[in-house]
Every structure is written in structure tokens, then in C-alpha cells.
UniProtKB/TrEMBL annotation, chains A, B:
Alphabetized SUPFAM superfamilies for the sequence: Homeodomain-like, Tetracyclin repressor-like, C-terminal domain
Keyword Transferase: no
Name of this protein: TetR family transcriptional regulator
DNA bind region: 37-56
All residue ranges annotated as the HTH tetR-type domain in the record: 14-74
Domain of life of the native organism: Bacteria
Length: 239, 239
DNA sequence: ACCTGAACACCGTTCAAGT
DNA sequence: ACCTGAACACCGTTCAAGT
């Protein structure tokens, strides 16, 4: 039961802001949001708690920086991903969506953090990053300018929400055999929903069976297809 | 500077769970999530911190209960709202959406809390509540059963995300003159977005001007119309 | 300029003791 | 059964002091 993943290997490199944020992300991944402590972080960086404050204003800023770093990496499509990015805008949107989907799956704390970040300050650095990468594809889709905001927002909110909800199914236990784990959790959700009051929750109970055994990623993409259909339909675009 | 809204007026009614949750919501509204403290809550209830633990397992459960209480109130459409609810399913969806929109606007802490709740436990009580109320309308819309989950999810995530983001524009300062306040904040967001790097953020900058002066509620409903269009288009439903 | 680490104020939670 | 309130362990943050 060695919870502490000590790592005082490399001792003295001057301790930069990047270094701190990187360690914060690692700690977040390892022990979750509650585990991110200035003391634990300091130990991991082989210094005292006070040192961190020289590079970062406080915990709020640290969390924002960690979130931004992960989002930036997720949203920047590697050139290898799609040879020349000569794909359709739809493919581009799917790529961005899956990038965020995977990032949230890899860093479960991201779901809550993204919501906090967006609902706290839309003028921060993380909101524009996501908005821009989706918006460009919306633009390429031929959506008229006055609808750019609506279409991009709809996509962004669905992507963030659905990916976040999905992360709950993955992050229940350790990382061993995530596929098995997920099936178990999905079954649990399905069972819980089927156990709801028949009078109050007829619809949710009816859907419960569908949830079981469905592929997450497929479901996620189906939602995106739905919104894309709405975008093309409402503006009579050709597909 | 009397931040403390003391209220030891009514002293001794046995202190029930409902009472505690109600006081928690009040405190949350007054001082935000960071202000919800077992000590502050106890003071407001004219008891000690330990007493609360007799009725509630801990802070996590308290937050969940507070969220659930507000969501339950928001999602239950008052009979006065729509005489016999003989409206169209579309109207029903808009009603649910606006109910949540208003609730988040009234209780800004709800945005973060909802995301936390959904991404932590989809099998909790709050997710089914929202899912059910939206899903019934989706069902009434004539969506085929295998698409219930996708359509309802898309709507739910958009509603929660967009309403949450919107709350950020409202909750910046005190409650006096929220309309003026909001215009100011919207201008600030717009200005911040226009100040982004032209090379990295061409799309976001282009949209920045649209943001200014647009009606939030109208924007919100436009997004819902978009998703509804997708639903009816993809299943070739008649409107 | 950058780091140290003790100290401060505060928090969630527990629990022996009361009624 | 239900409440009290002191106590515990821990946290974010500060800051005089060091290098």
C-alpha cells in the first residue's frame, strides 16, 4: 500500500513554473483533485511549500494552469494524426472531440475542472482554446457567420458534457483492465436506473437497458452526428 | 462590512435534514461554495458543527443534497406554468431548459456542482431527474427508441453547459442591477477575446463582436433549436 | 532572485460527554 | 435519539530569514 509515489530523484534544476505545473498534472492523475496539496507537490518537487508561491499565485491559478496545459496538448492535433489535414470539416470536428474525450478519460479530474474553469471565467485561456479549435471547423463547414457562435457552443458543450459524464464510468477504480471495469460500472449504472421508481422515472428505466453494453465512443460520436445534422439541416448545407 | 448574515431568530425546532439542506442552499447562495462551512452552517442553525453529522454523512453528501433539492424544484414544472401541459414537446423541452437555466442563474454554484455530480456519479439522484424530464419530451417527439439516449444526452449536455457558462456572466458581482452588470461583463469577455493573438485565434476574434450585446436567453434557445433540428432531421420527423 | 520552513488561520471530521 | 463543543489532523497561505 505505497500510496506515496515519491520521486526525489532529480534534485536541483531551478524549479520553473512549467516544472511545477507538470508535477501538478502528474499528482492530479495519481491521486485526484483532493490529493493535490501544496505539501505533497512540494515533496514531489523536493522543496518546501513556500517555494511554489514564487512561481504560482495560488492553488486556483495552479489548477487553471494544469487544466490549460492538458487542454492545449489535447486540442493541438499532431501532424501525424491526419496526414495533411485535408479531411472534411466533419472529420476535423470528430478529431477535436475525440482528442478531448481521450484527454478527459486519461485525466478524470479534467471533467470537473473544465466545468469550473468555463463557468468561472469564459475569458480565461482554456475556453478560447477549445472554442477556437471547434469553431474553425464550423467555419469550414460553411455555416453562415451569424450562427458561428451558436453552432460552436452547441458542439463544445455537448463534447465537454458527454466526455465528462463518460469519464465517471472509467475512473471508478485503478487503471488495470479498464475495459472490464467499465462494463461492470456500466452494468451498475444500468441496474441503478432500472431500480428507480416506475411512476417517477418511466423514461430513464426504459433507457437503462440500452446503456448496458453500448460502446461509449460510439455513443459519443452519435451525439456529435446529431448536432452536425442539426447544423447542416438548419442552414440547408450539403453534406 | 457585515458579511455574516446571522439569523439565530428561531431557535429550537428539532433540526431536520431538510432544514439543514435548506440552510445550506441559502448559505451557498449568499457566500458561494467556499463559504459553505460546517461552522458557518452550524452558526446559522444555532447549533454546533457536530450536530450536522447526525443528519448528514459529510460535506460531499450535503453538497449533493443541496444540488438535488434545487434541481428537483427547477425541473418540476408548476401547473401554473403551462395550463394543462398540452403544449408541444418542443415547448416542453424549452420549458425544462429554461427552468434549469434560471436555476443556475439564481444559484451560480449550481453550475460547478452539477458538473461534479454528473461526472462523479451518473447513478446519483440528480442525473436521472434531469434526464427523465428531458427524455419524456424526446419520447413525445416521436424519436425512435434506439435514439432516445443519444438525443436526450445531447440536449442535457448542451443545456447544462450553456447555462453554466452563462451563469459566469451573471455572477461576477452583487445582485444589484444584474442587467447592467451583465452587459459590462459581456463587454469584458468580448474585449478579452478581441485581444487574443490574431494568428492563433482568428475564429474566436471574429465571433467576439457577435457576443457583445446579444441576448443570453435568445442565444441559449437558438442552441436548443439547433439540436432539435438535428433530432427531427436525422429521424425525418415532421415538425 | 529564489528558496526554506515555521507559523497562522481555518477547515472537515470525530467523539466522549451530556440531555 | 439527538445535540454539544473541544480536539485532531490537515490544509492554503504568509513571511522573516536565509542563500
Amino acid at each position: 500500500m505505497a500510496t506515496r509515489t515519491r520521486r526525489p530523484e532529480r534534485r536541483q534544476e531551478p524549479l520553473s513554473r512549467e516544472h511545477i505545473v507538470g508535477a501538478a498534472v502528474e499528482l492530479l492523475d495519481a491521486v485526484g483533485e483532493d490529493g493535490l496539496t501544496f505539501r505533497a507537490l512540494a515533496e514531489r518537487l523536493a522543496t518546501g511549500p513556500g517555494a511554489i508561491y514564487w512561481h504560482v499565485r495560488g492553488k486556483t491559478e495552479l489548477l487553471a494552469a494544469a487544466t490549460d496545459a492538458v487542454v492545449a496538448a489535447a486540442v493541438t492535433i499532431e501532424p501525424a494524426e491526419s496526414a495533411e489535414s485535408a479531411d472534411s470539416p466533419q472529420d476535423g470536428i470528430r478529431a477535436v472531440a475525440l482528442g478531448l474525450f481521450d484527454a478527459i478519460e486519461e485525466h478524470p479530474w479534467l471533467a470537473t475542472q473544465l466545468a469550473t474553469q468555463l463557468s468561472r471565467s469564459p475569458w480565461g485561456t482554456v475556453a478560447p482554446r477549445i472554442f477556437e479549435s471547434i469553431g474553425r471547423q464550423v467555419c469550414a463547414l460553411g455555416v453562415p457567420e451569424e450562427s458561428w457562435f451558436t453552432a460552436t457552443s452547441a458542439l463544445m458543450h455537448y463534447i465537454l458534457g458527454a466526455a465528462g459524464q463518460n469519464a465517471a464510468n472509467t475512473a471508478s477504480a485503478g487503471t488495470a483492465r479498464p475495459d472490464v471495469d467499465r462494463a461492470v460500472v456500466l452494468d451498475a449504472v444500468s441496474a441503478a436506473w432500472e431500480g428507480l421508481d416506475p411512476d417517477d422515472y418511466p423514461f430513464t428505466r426504459a433507457v437503462a437497458k440500452q446503456v448496458r453494453g453500448h460502446d461509449d465512443r460510439e455513443q459519443f460520436l452519435a451525439g456529435i452526428a446529431l448536432i452536425l445534422a442539426g447544423i447542416t439541416a438548419i442552414h440547408s448545407l450539403t453534406t
